[in-house]
Amino acid sequence: MFDTLTGSVSSVLSKIRGKKVITEKEVTDSLLLIKEALLKADVSYDVAQVFIEEAKKYALGQERIETVNADEQFIASVHKTLVNLIGSEDKGLKLEPIEKTSVVLLFGLQGSGKTTSAAKLARYYKSKRRVMLVGLDVHRPAAMEQLRVLADSIGVHSYIDTKEKKAYKILKKALVSAKKEMCNLVIVDTAGRLEIDDEMMLELRRIQNTVKVHDKILVVDSTIGQSLFDVASSFKNAIGIDGVLLTKFDSDVKGGAALSLKYATGSDVRFIGTGEHTEDLDEFDAERFASRILGMGDIVKLVAKAQEAISQKEAEEMLQKVIENNFDFNDFLLQIDASNKMGGITKIMDMMPNMPSNIDKSLIDKQERQIKQFKAIIQSMTKKERLSLFPLNNSRKMRIANGSGTNMYEINQLIKQFDMVKNMLGSKNKMANLMKNMEGMGLSMDDLNKLM
Ligand SMILES: Nc1nc2c(ncn2[C@@H]2O[C@H](COP(=O)(O)OP(=O)(O)OP(=O)(O)O)[C@@H](O)[C@H]2O)c(=O)[nH]1
Ligand SMILES: [Mg+2]
């Protein structure tokens, strides 16, 4: 994601890094280069201009802090300016207290991801609220069905009416049904158009005049490019925008929309869609996003994920086993699972700071395949074999290879890595090493290590 932008911004910053003193010219030149990178990332000229002016004011206007290096202070200024520009003070949906019913309206262009996002939000909130999804796409009955299927799959209520042609009438009836079902969060999916048209806006206005809407969320495809400004201003004029949900963040190579939305809509990006599945939704975090653009990586997320993937207790138990020389294939499997839980190597790399953008993807694919293979191999072992009480002879290896659809070479590879991890774990009696052993599975966890 945004490899080019991150690459060019970090190369500008790398020229500054290590400097004790930075001249005004160096500040201006660096900011101009960053501006160029922003423009290439499809950020509008206005936004890029605002960024450079603010950053300059901030960087030059600040008093020199003696204890902080000039380079760090400058990078911090750029970071702060970016965060202000992107802005995300508002997080999540703006909801009424739970005893009241909150109505959230999703709107946007055709194919921007409204229906999918409605389902994602329902899933996100279903543990906190009783959710009902309402389909108002009166122009395409299939779209309503799509919403119902999604609602069923995540286990929330839904209300559709494929016969009624007036969207606002469906919503009125849906709210009655929501009361009956005691749903306190109604998420409304509306129809989209290829372009903004009057009929679409009229329909939205009618909806808004019929019921009290508590949160109006514009759904925007992050690959939209410069037309973002027209879209935002039309919806803003017609019904107003409280917040933005940015979809297809996973396929956003430029980052322009994410950078410009606050400026274009005056509202914060509250959520980002990161894939096609209903679980692929995150609250947007401007600090992290800015860090990523500056090549500082998404360290916060990486650490949180690592902690989630392997609990402290599991880690300590594993360490104890190594000390007692009982580390077995079951433990190894647990670690493989932990790396899977973190989203696989590709996602981990994406979160790491200063990762070169030209990493050989085929190599990563190969390593991910190998991890899957290792899992299959261990799962084909007998209970005793998994305990690693004796060396595996050739006939056992053959049997395991047949069972897991692998071959002798791959089994030997696994044993080699297993031994490596075991030795590494045993070498230093430290929790930090536990994370490091992931290197044995092809992960570079150096940065994580420093933090643990
Ligand atoms: N990769 C990716 N795909 C997404 C995301 N959100 C939605 N999609 C895909 O985008 C396409 C359109 O999504 P929909 O939810 O049907 O869009 P919509 O705005 O409801 O479309 P209309 O009802 O036709 O206006 C589908 O193929 C979705 O799977 C996302 O965050 N990432
Ligand atoms: Mg739809």
What does this structure look like?
By secondary structure, this protein is an alpha/beta fold. It has 3 domains: 3-86, Four Helix Bundle (Hemerythrin (Met), subunit A) (Up-down Bundle); 102-293, P-loop containing nucleotide triphosphate hydrolases (Rossmann fold, 3-Layer(aba) Sandwich), CATH 3.40.50.300; 299-451, Signal recognition particle, SRP54 subunit, M-domain (434 Repressor (Amino-terminal Domain)). The protein contains 21 helices and 8 strands. The chain has helices at residues 3-16, 24-40, 45-61, 70-86, 114-125, 141-154, 167-180, 198-210, 228-238, 256-265, 286-293, 299-309, 312-323, 329-341, 344-351, 361-379, 383-386, 394-404, 408-427, 431-436, 446-451; strands spanning 102-107, 131-135, 157-159, 185-189, 215-221, 243-247, 269-273, 281-283. It has an 8-stranded mixed sheet with strand order 3-2-4-1-5-6-7-8, sandwiched between helices. Helix 9 (228-238) links the parallel strand 5 (215-221) and strand 6. The protein starts with a helix and ends with a helix. 40% of the residues are buried.
Produce a short descriptive summary.
This protein is an alpha/beta fold and 452 residues long. The chain contains 21 helices and eight strands.
